[in-house]
Amino acid sequence: MEFKDRRDAGRALAKALEAWRGRPGVLVLALPRGGVPVAWEVARALGAPLDVLVVRKLGFPGQEEYAMGAIASGGVRVMGEADAGWPVSARELEAVVAREQAELVRREQRYRGGRPPLDLAGRVLILVDDGLATGATMSAAVQAARAGYPKQVIVAVPVASTEAVQSLSALADEVVCLFTPEHFRAVGLWYQDFTQTSDEEVDRLLA
Predict the structure, then answer these.
(1) How are beta strands 152-159 and 124-128 bridged, if at all?
(2) Is residue 70 within 8 Å of 57, Cβ to Cβ?
(3) Which positions ≥6 away from 92 have C-beta within 8 Å?
(4) Could you tell me which residues come within 8 angstroms of residue 96 by beta carbon, excluding any fewer than 6 positions away?
(5) Class of the 6-53+120-206 domain?
(6) Is 19 left (phi over 0), alpha (psi -120 to 50) or beta?
(7) Which range is the signal sequence, renumbered to this chain (predicted)?
(8) Mean pLDDT of residues grouped by 10 in the chain (207 residues)?
């Protein structure tokens, strides 16, 4: 399975979430930036409101594409189980956290503007991203969402590694994933067009 782009993936994912179309209390939360075009299609198809839940991956120094953990709104920090055995000093870790925290705040201010914090209590939350590699970023998102006392938390992605789906299944009430390749390697390999989503596109879709 290969998706043309994130919007195409969102339309396919929406079909798998059809049971939630028109149901009250459903809120689609995108993980910016790449999750926003996917989530926009899901929200449009389900007739549900769309918002963002800002999460930042904590990449290894010099190998930023590999996640050693993630942070999310509300002070949530999730670290990989094996991080203690990897060669990253406490000083290096805190430098990464400080940098990503600053970017998290910047994105929240830009994407949310003057809007108040989300009221998640009693709602069905559908957390959407363009794919899951390690699942660390989505794990932080689920924990941040749980802090708002929702009724249910559903993780929905077009593609993911088997390991990520297994780890998220222990955290979320449900995981909807269209494709778990046997040889996953990277999210972008399963898209014909995986051009980075810009702040401007996020602004336009949220508007």
Answers:
(1) parallel
(2) yes
(3) 61
(4) 58, 59, 61, 68
(5) alpha beta
(6) alpha
(7) none
(8) 95 98 95 96 97 88 79 81 64 92 90 80 97 90 91 98 95 97 92 95 92
Helix (H, G, I), strand (E, B) or coil at 148: coil
Give the start-to-end residue ranges of the domains of the chain. 6-53+120-206, 57-110
Peptide bond connecting 106 to the previous residue in cis, omega within 30 degrees of 0: no
Q: CA 132, 169, 135: angle at the middle one, nearest 5?
A: 25
**Rounded Cα–Cα distance for residues 205 and 196 (Å):** 15
Distance in angstroms (rounded) separating the CA atoms of residues 8 and 156: 14
Classify residue 48 by burial, with Cβ atoms within 10 Å: 0-12, 13-18, 19+: buried
d(CA 191, CA 159): 10
Name the packing angle between helices 162-169 and 136-146 (round to 10°): 20
pLDDT at residue 85 in the model: 52
Closest of 129, 121, 119, 193 to residue 152, by C-alpha:
121
> Which pLDDT belongs to residue 81?
55
Q: What span, in angstroms and rounded, lies between the C-alpha atoms of 45 and 1?
A: 21
